[in-house]
What does this fold into?
Amino acid sequence: MGKPILYGYDISPPVRAVLLTANAIGLDFEYREVNIMAGAHLSEEYLKKNPQHTIPMLEDDGKCIWDSHAIAVYLIEKYGDDKFLYPKDLYKRAIIDQRLHFDSGVLFPTFRRIVDSLRTKGTIEEEDRKRLLDAFEFLEKFLSKDLYLGGNCLTVADLCCVATVSSLTMNNPVDAAKFPKLNEWLQRMALLPYYQKANGEGLARAAELFKNMASSAQGSQ
Ligand SMILES: N[C@@H](CCC(=O)N[C@@H](CS)C(=O)NCC(=O)O)C(=O)O
It folds into this structure.
């Protein structure tokens, strides 16, 4: 059996969520770049593997899995030996699952809306700023008693959410006076030894890309 193959492009927050998870468990994997800006995710070959044409996608032992959350949990369960990243305890697991769905259902759609309006209008709509602040308020509450999103240990919820939250803060830095716990959590996550390689580098590339997208959209208004 060969190494698991991760298909991705690191400007994408869900791809970076899987890179963080793979690094957290010390996974030996192959990375294949799929340049979504050049349409590589729409190639016949890629569509055969993932008809939903999203990145990230994992190919493991000839089987394909997509959606970052599904991939991250699969990798931890199959290849990880850390008992805390996705614990067996059902209540702890349910809390972590809730945070993963919060990432899918609230954080990531907000990120997409913001990117779409930066790309087309060069600005962030007021309505989306409000969505973002509402999401930050929820995160502040999730972090009110604990150091991490799923309790006092690092879990897959932190690895997935930080990729999206850090992307949301590219254009909207967290107000540390208003969201002190969220700000501390972001700083804590940035101290992970693999953070820069797995999230920081792609995030910096994404920030540059979105800045250029916004200024060309403003120029064409
Ligand atoms: N919920 C999915 C979202 C994946 C997603 O939408 N990825 C974007 C890149 S950030 C993508 O593949 N866009 C191309 C497309 O949807 O065709 C996940 O967590 O993996």
Q: What stands out?
A: Strands lie at 5-8, 30-33, 57-60, 63-66. The domain at 90-219 is CATH 1.20.1050.10 (Glutathione S-transferase Yfyf (Class Pi); Chain A, domain 2). DSSP finds eight helices and four strands in the chain.
